[in-house]
Design goal:
94 residues; alpha+beta; two-stranded antiparallel ribbon
Length: 94
Amino acid sequence: MHSNEIGKIGALVLAAGISAGLAMTPAAAQSGGKEKCYGVAKAGKNDCAAGPGTSCAGTSTRDYQGNAWKLVDKGSCETIKTPKGKGSLKPIKR
């Protein structure tokens, strides 16, 4: 294989990886009108990854789990009140 062919293959692999990553991001988040809000999801109602032992949507094991997030309207996360405190833009210990 020539170096030019190897370069083309590398570029295709990179493009495929980027496309796959974008496909896994919810469309609402890509539009810019939403943000991840940690600690506001009820058990099993998170939008994606919730730490060790979970993989994606619906895998949180307890209400208001600090490492589980929901997509909310941009700017509203830290105003959301739960019985365990307010929402956070970063994972929190709970």
